[in-house]
Recover the amino acids of this structure.
């Protein structure tokens, strides 16, 4: 076993030992291994010193994360794969609005294609695939994560225009394609810059099984990069999503209020025809959709944003390996949920899925669902008048 060579690195609150040989003999006969103990010296230089001060996590934790990612992988690949297949093969689903759903599913699909790297690293207890695997993992994560965030914001814009401006806000396929091209032009530089180290860099984090952009290097250039990518990939999409969905909810609530007041003046229960007792009103349905979409984006990327800001501008001692694995899991979880929120709740999608895969026993009833959706859309569109 390697001998321990101790050096120290100063932190804001204390001085932490950084063992270079990564193994510390103990009195009970069980060596204490630090993160990076099994990393070759030529690969060790790529790991931020911050992580090297922490002991290796229990094998059970690595195994648990590996199994969790296997579940994420199959759930997301199947869900997003079905979305890509059904939406691309069914002519009735090839609408301008659904082009954004397909782009989102593609981003989530890419997000999960990188998980075998994490799974292998977890089962091998660390930085097993080295710098090359780290760069591939982080590049795919940046492309898919930022692309998904921007796609969410354009989905919010499309729904805002469709509901609040039904006559002049209809999106064409050409316009949707231009928007999708813009999304990728906007996204790619934020992955290429750190990959080529023109600005920022990719580095391992947490248990050294995942990689992302380096938020720990204490230089002005790196802090500026973290601040810029935080603003462009998190703040801007977040503002768009909140603004557009809040406008949708506001318009629908106003319309519902006007309908109730008019019904009261006419001394009738409701102005809607064929309204069944117990059905949700349009305001509740759209409000729930808006809240769900916003919550998914917040839940998936806020942990990463907080960790990055703490690493670049705050107390890095707060960022333990276990804490930084939380954002790595949340963004993968949302990539699994997205296809169900955006597509599986779509009646025409469910109907096509039932036709192509009858053994799923979806039992979608086209007429009633279509009527419900048509009623909801009509009510929402009237909010613009």
């Amino acid at each position: 076993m390697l001998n321990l060579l101790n050096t120290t690195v100063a932190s804001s609150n204390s001085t932490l030992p950084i063992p270079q040989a990564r193994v510390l003999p103990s009195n009970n006969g069980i060596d204490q291994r630090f993160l990076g103990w099994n990393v070759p010296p030529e690969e060790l230089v790529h790991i931020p010193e911050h992580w090297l001060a922490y002991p290796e996590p229990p094998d059970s934790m690595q195994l648990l994360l590996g199994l969790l990612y296997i579940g994420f992988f199959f759930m997301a690949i199947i869900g997003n794969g079905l979305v890509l297949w059904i939406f691309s093969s069914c002519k009735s689903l090839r609408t301008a609005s659904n082009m954004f759903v397909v782009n989102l599913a593609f981003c989530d699909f890419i997000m999960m294609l990188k998980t075998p790297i994490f799974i292998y690293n977890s089962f091998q207890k660390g930085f097993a695939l080295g710098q090359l695997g780290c760069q591939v993992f982080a590049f795919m994560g940046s492309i898919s994560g930022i692309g998904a965030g921007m796609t969410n914001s354009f989905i919010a814009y499309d729904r805002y225009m469709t509901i609040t401006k039904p006559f002049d806000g209809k999106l064409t396929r050409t316009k949707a394609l231009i928007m999708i091209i813009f999304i990728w032009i906007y996204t790619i530089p934020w992955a290429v810059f750190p990959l080529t180290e023109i600005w920022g860099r990719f580095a391992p984090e947490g248990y050294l099984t995942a990689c992302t952009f380096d938020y720990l290097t204490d230089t002005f250039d790196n802090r500026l990069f973290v601040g810029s990518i935080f603003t462009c990939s998190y703040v801007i999409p977040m503002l768009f999503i909140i603004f557009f969905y809040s406008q949708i909810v506001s318009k629908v609530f106003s319309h519902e209020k006007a309908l109730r007041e008019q019904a009261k003046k006419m001394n009738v229960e409701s102005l809607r025809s064929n309204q069944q007792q117990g059905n949700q009103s349009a305001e509740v349905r759209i409000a729930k959709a808006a809240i769900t979409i916003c919550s998914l984006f917040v839940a998936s990327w806020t942990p990463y944003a907080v960790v990055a800001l703490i690493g670049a501008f705050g107390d890095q001692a707060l960022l333990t390996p276990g804490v930084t694995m939380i954002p790595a899991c949340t963004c993968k979880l949302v990539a699994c949920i997205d296809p169900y929120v955006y597509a599986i709740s779509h009646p025409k999608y469910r109907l096509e899925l039932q036709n192509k895969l009858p053994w799923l026993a979806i039992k979608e009833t086209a007429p009633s669902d279509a009527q419900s959706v048509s009623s909801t859309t009509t009510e929402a569109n009237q909010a613009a008048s």
